[in-house]
Design brief:
The structure is a homodimer of 204-residue chains.
Chain A lengths: L3 H7 L13 H11 L11 E6 L2 H21 L2 H9 L8 H4 L2 E8 L5 H18 L3 E2 L7 H8 L5 E10 L17 E3 L6 E3 L5 E3 L2
Antiparallel strand pairs in A: 1-2, 2-4, 3-4, 6-7
Helix pairs in contact in A: 2-6, 3-7
Chain lengths: 204, 204
Amino acid sequence: MPKLLDLATRRASIRAFSRDPIHLADVIYAIRVAHEAPSGANRQPWRFLIVTDDHVKSKIRHVCELAEREFHKIAPSWFKNWLRDKGISWRKPFLTDAPVLVLIFFKKDEPYASESTWLAIGYLILALEERGLASLTYTPSRSEDVNEVLNVPKAYCLAAIIPIGHPLCRKAKEPRTPLKRLCFLNTWGNPLTESEEGEVKLSG
Amino acid sequence: MPKLLDLATRRASIRAFSRDPIHLADVIYAIRVAHEAPSGANRQPWRFLIVTDDHVKSKIRHVCELAEREFHKIAPSWFKNWLRDKGISWRKPFLTDAPVLVLIFFKKDEPYASESTWLAIGYLILALEERGLASLTYTPSRSEDVNEVLNVPKAYCLAAIIPIGHPLCRKAKEPRTPLKRLCFLNTWGNPLTESEEGEVKLSG
């Protein structure tokens, strides 16, 4: 397996999926990895709903697109511009094109339920990348609609839908801000400088 | 590097750290991995404050323990029992014993700022494990006190403090619920069964 930095750097969010089938065992492998994540008081608040059925996918896509149409009307203008630049509309074809969806819920009344579950999603998408599978973390604008259409108990909140499959075409990764602008040493705003050998120095 | 499942399974939350120094380059490696995580609208809402200075660590420990003392009085009884069973008190020696702390903040006004940052914390702690470093995800009861004592702008919220180092003694990993109770196929509550060869079957 490559180094984690290579895996993490290689992974890009994919929004256009081919309909080629994938091995469900790879998806379950990634869920197994996610289930090893730490959680508040070890309550393991996550639940995974794997969706392979086309009829179920269509129902999910339908309620998500209804909410997205509304959201795209009211989004802040900077966000609308970003969405337009990226070619992202209210249409969510990945919800029916991707061969597998994994819906990740958390039990609302557990301590740090959302935080723990998002941490586990980090594990999950790295494990998918390890298995050569593309993914996206998509959170519907009105997640409670998804609960309703799928008869998921109200005690659980949908954190994200992860479409999984092979990309329709290769996509460049979104650029990252230089780390020195986001990473400080001992005092807020104090950048760290690093030599090419990885040695860290205080700057200034 | 081992498979991600091995890394994730091996990693256990550590609360007692030796004072042995570690290589800061390994910590920066893990932050670099975290910075490759996806984020809402690619806004990279995370900020990393690496703390190696003993005086800064003491200040952090002091404000955290003040708040923890209060929290341990008012916590729900099941949680108090869990804390007692685990030997967890309001005392947080790991905040001064661990050779390095990484404080992870997120910019509050970015979309999905907390969610994206916790996902990135998943990347971070796996990368620390890859480098043979132990860690804990600790969120103070009153994180705003930490902002204040460290002069961190109010626009940023502290997600977690990650003490990093070598464990004082080996610790068994917390047990996991069998996956089949948390993972469903196509319909909520419909367990999936998996043969030993990793082949997935619908049960029932």
